[in-house]
Amino acid sequence: xxxxxxxxxxxxxxxxxxxxxxxxxxxxxxxxxxxxxxxxxxxxxxxxxxxxxxxxxxxxxxxxxxxxxxxxxxxxxxxxxxxxxxxxxxxxxxxxxxxxxxxxxxxxxxxxxxxxxxxxxxxxxxxxxxxxxxxxxxxxxxxxxxxxxxxxxxxxxxxxxxxxxxxxxxxxxxxxxxxxxxxxxxxxxxxxxxxxxxxxxxxxxxxxxxxxxxxxxxxxxxxxxxxxxxxxxxxxxxxxxxxxxxxxxxxxxxxxxxxxxxxxxxxxxxxxxxxxxxxxxxxxxxxxxxxxxxxxxxxxxxxxxx
Amino acid sequence: xxxxxxxxxxxxxxxxxxxxxxxxxxxxxxxxxxxxxxxxxxxxxxxxxxxxxxxxxxxxxxxxxxxxxxxxxxxxxxxxxxxxxxxxxxxxxxxxxxxxxxxxxxxxxxxxxxxxxxxxxxxxxxxxxxxxxxxxxxxxxxxxxxxxxxxxxxxxxxxxxxxxxxxxxxxxxxxxxxxxxxxxxxxxxxxxxxxxxxxxxxxxxxxxxxxxxxxxxxxxxxxxxxxxxxxxxxxxxxxxxxxxxxxxxxxxxxxxxxxxxxxxxxxxxxxxxxxxxxxxxxxxxxxxxxxxxxxxxxxxxxxxxxxxxxxxxxxxxxxxxxxxxxxxxxxxxxxxxxxxxxxxxxxxxxxxxxxxxxxxxxxxxxxxxxxxxxxxxxxxxxxxxxxxxxxxxxxxxxxxxxxxxxxxxxxxxxxxxxxxxxxxxxxxxxxxxxxxxxxxxxxxxxxxx
Lengths: 306, 449
Description:
The complex is a heterodimer. Chain A has helices at residues 2-7, 9-19, 21-44, 55-65, 73-86, 101-112, 114-117, 136-145, 158-163, 175-187, 194-213, 221-226, 230-237, 248-268, 274-293, and strands spanning 120-121, 132-133. By secondary structure, chain A is mainly α. Chain A has one domain (2-293): Orthogonal Bundle (Ammonium transporter fold). In chain A, strands 1-2 form a two-stranded antiparallel ribbon. In chain A, helix 4 (55-65) packs across helix 5 and helix 4 (55-65) runs parallel beside helix 6. The longest helix of chain A has 24 residues, at 21-44. Chain B is of the alpha/beta class. Among the domains of chain B are: 2-21 and 118-288, 3-Layer(aba) Sandwich (Rossmann fold); 381-448, no CATH class. Helix content of chain B is 27%, strand content 19%. Chain B is built from 13 helices and 18 strands. Chain B has helices at residues 123-132, 145-148, 173-180, 182-196, 210-223, 248-256, 276-288, 318-324, 381-385, 392-400, 404-407, 420-424, 431-448, and strands at 2-4, 27-28, 34-38, 48-49, 56-57, 62-65, 74-75, 80-88, 96-103, 159-163, 200-206, 234-239, 271-275, 294-300, 308-313, 332-337, 344-345, 359-364. The longest helix of chain B is centred in the last third of the chain and has 18 residues, at 431-448. The chains are: A mainly alpha, B alpha/beta. At the A-B interface, loops of A face loops of B.
């Protein structure tokens, strides 16, 4: 778990530099909230308190990084309660939760508080010159709903989006910083390459086909890979072992499903933050994927899990 | 003919540490003052005692007769006086009766009936001599050998596999036997191949024992063409070193390309597997009329002064073997009968060596990694190493929740209990133990209904 926190360090530091000290408050509130909810919840249920395993801290940090940089304190608190309480403890704690707690928290907040969850500011050194603005995905979403085609999103500076110069959630502005952390996790052997590669690859392929067919109405694949939570979700949340399939074959199906649903929701759905919904839906499909992708049983035609 | 084979799916590469004892020639343990001969040293029903307290017995005399077909006779492993027939400490941890024999120091054998014409002995006569000698598979599974020499008429056996893989870490008893008693091993395999009427014989040996491969191959060539040689094609199969390569199912799949059907036996694919030690015992029984009263045991581990291999009379307490090799050093954590992967930890050094005891392993305290059992995080490490294709984590979670009926859909009964899953689990979950627990509970549930 320490390695996961280390891997999130680049994204965290970039976020703090761009949005200032209040980002630290958001992080402390989320991490503290998650640890607190887990400790109190486990006490109340008469279970052994396991906050020291670090998993609640990781959930808290991931939640903080996926919130708007000026998220209010109660948003953080409700997020922690939803993530750890609803996402983890009610299912029996670590290992038994069907949904990734951080994603679940983000989706609960998105549905419950859409205004606060889409209120972003521009990045600036130490967050001193921040002004309220919208993210490229939000711009795209609005333009699409009003029938204005790609709207302002068409002018998104993709290099800036990759490096970290556009508005976004606290830890999601710099795709590069998140990618560095993801590669570190791959190198340390904590995650499998199949999920991030399958997911980002599918997103690129599907969005690329539409863009190639009609570039006036669809954004290029690079846009989809560097905006929103693409990198953070693909490397840090979809790869959660507890909520992804057991075999490589299963994980590839899961990853392709996540990528496909992300693009579908981004292009035709009602929410800009499509990727969280996509992963949440695929989390729900994990038991059935496991059922049909279990290894072949020695000496039998049937599968080990069926 | 030497041929290299590919490996099986799954499995692990633990530290083998065979170098501790691999170069130690087989020594002979001085006769103990007393032996405790368990009436159950095999899979099946215990033998029925045929001696009583106060009787004098000679070495090799039957003290317990097989009760039924799937049972094996046991013999006095010393000459002397029967001083007790009682429940004894048994390596399996089960309650087993044993015959206690006080030595008279003379090692006075029964009159053996050697057979010079062993190569031409008819199959039925071989089976009878094997049965009389009380041989059970010496690889550790201890299935009655005479039963495996009598396959059902309806299931012809075309392949004999001689198992010299010895994939368990630390153990070197079979390795030394193949080097030092090559003639007995090969002659025993010749006998078994003739009794079974197979059309081919394959030896399976891991590539970490090239000297054993050479020795066996040279012996096969030496006897080829003579009356003591194989009448069918023989292959010495060299296998990549990986645990559990010596598991019957893995060995058959790699050497023949056939998989034993789920819930079935090797004869279902026309194969019978015998361990090299069993082959040597078969030869001794047929050629010399010698019952199985001794075996080679590896005594090893970092907690032992001087690891080595030793021939001992069955029923000798583990304590004497440990003392023979200089005793324990440092703080000892566990004493295991068998290897580190599938062996059974003992609570008492008085437990006797039995027919299936391939090794005694002394593990220092600081080599034992214990930690709290943590929840399964579905990392799937156990699934990747399972050589059967099971989902060990799912069975363990079911067992933990006491959902034994639920566990059955994950095929716990196909588990060969090799322990690879427990070995790799990062959450320190005793997976193979939980699968065994699920198996016994499911059987209980079924017995109730």
